Amino acid sequence: MTFSQQELKEQVAKAAVDYILPLLTPGSVVGVGTGSTADLFIDQLAKHKDAFRAAVASSERSAKRLTNHGIAVLDLNEVQTMPVYVDGADEINALLQMIKGGGGALTREKIVASVAERFVCIADESKVVAELGAFKLPIEVLPMALQSVSRQVAKLGGQAQLRQGFTTDNGNPILDVAGFSVADARSLECQINDIPGVVCCGFFAKSPATVALIATQEGVKTLT
Ligand code: 5RP
């Protein structure tokens, strides 16, 4: 029997809840990511509402799903620390460095993750890569800097394309960048962050995941 990608996402969402439950107390706040895998995680988390106090969401989309399940959603400014942040990824390598932002929530994801003690990445095996970069790198940009950032990105070897018909929860456009050579994702993340007008880039390499739960045809594997 072969599991579909949807079934693998459901399996890793359940595994994530099993993984984080021992880390939670009734007073805990859980950081929650964005995307189809994060959606499934929210659905599983909702079965354990007594195990934690509230959540902080990395997008309006996730906040709405949490609220619909009756889970309290806090503003990040109300929270000093969280034991765990759980989110998907578009690509993840053996160092647990990721490309994120396919759903456009990269900036809030990086901020919420930075407040959590651990980042638990949940993904199906199609997201595991030897080298980051086949997935176009999302970069959230201030509107007035679209052209200037595109030119700076070209100097770093990337071809930027405006994500059509999309605005982030922060009111900004996204550039999706192809063509980067990503031997050193950490260094490239710093270089892109330094471009004036860049709000956030989708490399999560300076602060990779703490642990990755990867759903495979042979079961959910834990990478550390
Ligand atoms: C959203 C993200 C998501 O985590 C990433 O796009 C993976 O999404 P999915 O679980 O739907 O494959 O970074 O900004």
UniProtKB/TrEMBL annotation:
CDD domains membership: RPI_A
Acetylation among keywords: no
Active site per the UniProt annotation: E109 (proton acceptor)
Entry binding sites for substrate: T34, G35, S36, T37, D87, G88, A89, D90, K100, G101, G102, G103, K127
One Pfam assignment: Rib_5-P_isom_A
Keyword tRNA-binding set for record: no
GO MF term list: ribose-5-phosphate isomerase activity
GO annotations of cellular component type: cytosol
Broadest EC class assigned to this enzyme: isomerase
Catalytic activity: aldehydo-D-ribose 5-phosphate = D-ribulose 5-phosphate
Keywords, sorted A to Z: Isomerase
Pathway: Carbohydrate degradation; pentose phosphate pathway; D-ribose 5-phosphate from D-ribulose 5-phosphate (non-oxidative stage): step 1/1
Cross-referenced InterPro entries: NagB/RpiA_transferase-like (IPR037171), Ribose5P_isomerase_typA_subgr (IPR020672), Ribose5P_isomerase_type_A (IPR004788)
E.C. no: 5.3.1.6
HAMAP family (alphabetical): Rib_5P_isom_A (MF_00170)
Similarity comment: family membership: Belongs to the ribose 5-phosphate isomerase family.
Quaternary assembly: Homodimer.
UniProt name for this protein: Ribose-5-phosphate isomerase A
Lineage: Bacteria, Pseudomonadati, Pseudomonadota, Betaproteobacteria, Burkholderiales
Gene name for this UniProt entry: rpiA
